[in-house]
Amino acid sequence: MFQAFFFDMDGVLFDSMPNHILAWSETLARYGIPFTARDCYLNEGRTSRDVIMLLANRHHVPVSEEQLEVIYHEKTASYRRRGGGKPMKDIDLVLHFLEQRHVGIWVVTGGGQTDLYEQLEGFFPGIFHPEKMITAFDVKHGKPDPEPYLKAWERSRLDKSQCCVVENAPLGIKAGKAAGLFTIGVNTGALTREDLEQAGADIVFDNMAQLHQWLLAQP
Ligand code: CA
Mean pLDDT of all residues in the chain? Predict the structure, then answer.
């Protein structure tokens, strides 16, 4: 059994992708930039500014540095207006199972909200701890760079073979594998199993209940 699990946040701990998709579509439409759910999942893990520039370039829409900041803030405000995310279905089964077995529970996210710990504590009381969180403030390079997962591994002081990544998106899976860690893909969104397998996931589950069943069967 692994001694630490490194959980991604959006689309893993929080069922937040539907509101991210709505917020992106609404905001980008005002600037004439098309956006699909698949765009959201395939680019998940990139910083918001990188997503804006990537899509703007793809659709030949010129965006100035100033506009980039405005679009970023409009998208963030739209997401917050929609109430953010709610806990992923059955993630509580997974977290409580690990907690009972004294397995380390970490969050490794590209998110940089200053109230992240309070959000986690509100939804999952007593499960997460500030010293087991890697956020945008802790790294120079976000996913798919391995830095966020390497930082979690270093802080855990465990062997790599004792650590496991849980991700829902291809770029996050690539980050976990590039860090040399066993990486589980849970397909909670609009992608196919093949998208997660091709990104390099060691195992792919369709939902958190399947991950929980797999954990129960581990020696
Ligand atoms: Ca994610």
Answer: 94
Q: How far is the CA of 167 from the centre of ligand 1 (A)?
A: 6
pLDDT above 90: residue 207: yes
Residue 38 C-alpha to ligand 1 middle, in angstroms? 13
Query: Locate tokens 């976000």: which residue?
Result: 142
Q: What's the gap in Å between 187 CA and the centre of ligand 1?
A: 10
At 3, the amino acid letter reads: Q
Cα–Cα–Cα angle for 11, 52, 36, nearest 5°? 55
In DSSP terms, which residues pair with 182 in a beta bridge? Answer: 164
pTM above 0.85, yes or no: yes
Query: Per residue in 16-32, pLDDT tens?
Result: 889 999 999 999 999 99
